[in-house]
Amino acid sequence: MRKAILALTVAAFGIGTSEFVIMGLLPDLAHSFNISIPKAGVIVSAYALSVTFGSPLVAIALSKTERKRTLILLMSIFLVGNLCCAFAPNFELMIAARLLTALCHGAFFGTGAIVAANLVPKNKRAQAIATMFTGLTLANVLGVPAGTAIGHALGWRSTFLFLLPIGLIAMLGLIFLVPGRTPNRWNYATKSLP
């Protein structure tokens, strides 16, 4: 089960890095698309709005889907979104790519937390969820500075290409390490039923 939680942690690292790294790349994006830095900042707002309004809709749409499949589908959105960011030919399509990428954000963390909690005994739930969210912390401490440095050294598009192997490793971990059906340890009432 520890390996399954590690896969969730890697995914959280990738998603967190993708969310925050854009701020360090705004001057490069602005120059590339020949726009002002404040206008380039719309990309940050677009991502936040997509997380706020899009993620709940995605979570509702996938609520009847088995959790492992949900996580894999959300990581697929992450991969496609970052690939689109890397090759966006103009500012408008870059915003669309960021909107797409953000759709996986809230739904992944919500579903991932439930899966992490259900992979361990009751007394280890908080630790499992905290371990998964360590990926988000590491994204801010390591991923964002590394992604920004890569973007400044090799061009901002390379940062999004750098995120693809992270997403792919996370997806493979989800496929091979997370059980197909995680036990629902939250539902105590059904355990007492005949």
In words, what does this structure look like?
By secondary structure, this protein is mostly helical. The chain has one domain (2-178): Growth Hormone, Chain: A (Up-down Bundle). Helices cover 80% and strands 0% of the residues. It has seven helices and no strands. The chain has helices at 2-33, 37-40, 42-61, 67-86, 91-118, 125-154, 156-177. Helix 1 runs antiparallel to helix 5, helix 4 (67-86) runs antiparallel to helix 5 (91-118) and helix 6 runs antiparallel to helix 7. The radius of gyration is 18 Å and the shape is globular. Mean pLDDT is 92; it is low at 183-194. Residues 4-194 form the Major facilitator superfamily (MFS) profile domain. It is a multi-pass membrane protein. The chain crosses the membrane at residues 42-63, 70-89, 95-120, 132-154, 160-178. It is found in: Cell membrane. It holds the Pfam family MFS_1.
Brief summary of the model shown:
This protein is mainly alpha-helical and 194 residues long. It has helices spanning 2-33, 37-40, 42-61, 67-86, 91-118, 125-154, 156-177. It has a single domain (2-178), classed as Growth Hormone, Chain: A (Up-down Bundle), CATH 1.20.1250.
Notable characteristics:
194 residues; mainly alpha; Growth Hormone, Chain: A; 7 helices; globular; membrane; MFS_trans_sf; transmembrane; MFS_dom
Spell out the blueprint of helices and strands.
Elements: H1 2-33, H2 37-40, H3 42-61, H4 67-86, H5 91-118, H6 125-154, H7 156-177
Helix pairs in contact: 1-5, 1-6, 1-7, 3-5, 4-5, 4-7, 5-6, 6-7
